From TrEMBL:
<keyword id="KW-0479">Metal-binding</keyword>
<protein>
    <submittedName>
        <fullName>Lipid kinase</fullName>
        <ecNumber>2.7.1.-</ecNumber>
    </submittedName>
</protein>
<dbReference type="Pfam" id="PF19279">
    <property type="entry name" value="YegS_C"/>
</dbReference>
<dbReference type="InterPro" id="IPR050187">
    <property type="entry name" value="Lipid_Phosphate_FormReg"/>
</dbReference>
<keyword id="KW-0067">ATP-binding</keyword>
<keyword id="KW-0460">Magnesium</keyword>
<keyword id="KW-0443">Lipid metabolism</keyword>
<keyword id="KW-0444">Lipid biosynthesis</keyword>
<dbReference type="GO" id="GO:0046872">
    <property type="term" value="F:metal ion binding"/>
</dbReference>
<dbReference type="InterPro" id="IPR017438">
    <property type="entry name" value="ATP-NAD_kinase_N"/>
</dbReference>
<keyword id="KW-0594">Phospholipid biosynthesis</keyword>
<keyword id="KW-0547">Nucleotide-binding</keyword>
<feature type="domain" description="DAGKc">
    <location>
        <begin position="6"/>
        <end position="133"/>
    </location>
</feature>
<dbReference type="GO" id="GO:0005524">
    <property type="term" value="F:ATP binding"/>
</dbReference>
<dbReference type="GO" id="GO:0008654">
    <property type="term" value="P:phospholipid biosynthetic process"/>
</dbReference>
<dbReference type="GO" id="GO:0016301">
    <property type="term" value="F:kinase activity"/>
</dbReference>
<dbReference type="InterPro" id="IPR001206">
    <property type="entry name" value="Diacylglycerol_kinase_cat_dom"/>
</dbReference>
């Protein structure tokens, strides 16, 4: 990890106008960076454009990208960040901000701007499923159904609480489904409530992919919730928060670099809170994919390499 020289750095600032914290909350953060010598070029996303479109368009005229938003906003920027190699600064403005939490980036935008100002860069991995990149986790089953039901309006109004409200309603009607896991030269048939494939450490507004997972370990962490009754998931919740659920008998968990998941009928795949593709789902790890500004002291979600 090397500090980045912040003198006269041209920064493209892209803010999700629908972010829960609101665009006005970043004004002090922008002022801090401007005073530190950053040339801030704030842009808005026009109808028909994506965040990656905006980054690609301005890539030759900037030195870094600052994204203000949540995990879904960051997900939209991932393709262009990989293509251009531009470093990423994160201003957490979303509902859960799990990627920021994984890297130890403070939830307060001003404190997050201080991280960018300090200039400490670290290279992290990304997950990929059917060509779609993800920072935190991709899920099939219960979590994908939750993403479909949790509207943007509910996220803005209820925040993290919205996950719990909608999840409780879904749990009562959830059913197991059959899937085939193809990985490391073998195929397994399973009955599951949810399959999650993680790249980072945190996801879902406070859950942990696996207690030792980091965003730079070159591995995907898969787990499958093979519970018989919905109330078993409630019993699992403390372990899901700690990342120790792999110790339970009705949870299948392993690390890999590539896995394919097949289902009888196409099922939606949730990547960082957005439904982006369907099964069959081919997952792989994209090692050392992007550079991100992180706090000087490595967080638990980083290996420190």
């Amino acid at each position: 990890m090397q500090p980045e020289d912040s003198s006269k750095k041209r920064a493209l600032l892209v803010i999700n106008p629908r972010a829960r914290s609101g665009s006005s909350s970043v004004d002090p953060a922008i002022e801090l960076l401007s005073d530190a010598g950053f040339e801030i070029r704030e842009t808005r996303i026009s109808d028909g454009d994506t965040i990656s479109d905006v980054i690609r368009r301005d890539a030759s005229e900037i030195d870094l990208v600052i994204v203000g938003g949540g995990d879904g906003t960051l997900n939209g920027a991932a393709p262009a960040l990989v293509e251009t190699g531009l470093p990423l600064g994160v201003l957490p403005l979303g509902t859960a901000n799990d990627f920021a939490r994984t890297l130890g980036i403070p939830p307060d935008p001003v404190q997050a701007a201080e991280v960018i100002k300090a200039g400490q860069l670290h290279t992290v991995d990304l997950g990929e499923v059917n060509g779609h990149l993800f920072f935190n986790v991709a899920s099939i089953g219960f979590s994908a159904e939750l993403a479909a039901e949790l509207t943007a309006r509910a996220k803005k109004r209820w925040g993290v609480m919205g996950y719990g409200i909608v999840a409780a309603r879904l749990l009562m009607r959830s059913r197991l489904f059959s899937a085939y896991l193809e990985h490391d030269g073998e195929t397994e048939k399973i009955r599951t409530l949810q399959i999650s494939v993680g790249n980072g450490r945190h996801y879902g507004g406070g859950l942990t992919v696996e207690e030792t997972a980091t965003a730079d370990d070159g591995k995907l962490d898969l787990y499958s919730l093979e519970v018989d009754h919905w109330w078993r998931l409630l019993a699992l919740l403390p372990s899901l928060r700690k990342g120790t659920h792999g110790r339970w008998d009705d949870v299948r968990a392993f690390q890999t670099t590539q896995v394919t998941i097949r289902t009888k009928w196409p099922r939606a795949v949730n990547t960082d809170g957005e439904l982006t593709t369907y099964t069959p789902a081919e997952f792989r790890i994209r090692t050392k994919a992007i550079r991100v500004f992180i706090p000087p002291e490595p967080a638990a979600g980083l290996g420190g390499a």
